[in-house]
Amino acid sequence: MISTAENWKRINEAVALEAERCGRKPEEVKVMAVTKLHAAEEIRPLIESGCCLFGENRLAESLEKWPQLNREGVSLHLIGHLQSNKAKAAVEFFDAVDSLDSLSTLLKVEKHAAAAGKRLSVLLEVNCSGEEAKHGFRDETEFFRALEAAAGFEFVSVRGLMTMAALGADEKTARAAFARLRQLRDKAETESGLRLPELSMGMSGDFKQAIVEGSTTVRIGTALFEGVPV
Question: What pTM value is reported for the model?
Answer without folding.
Answer: 0.96
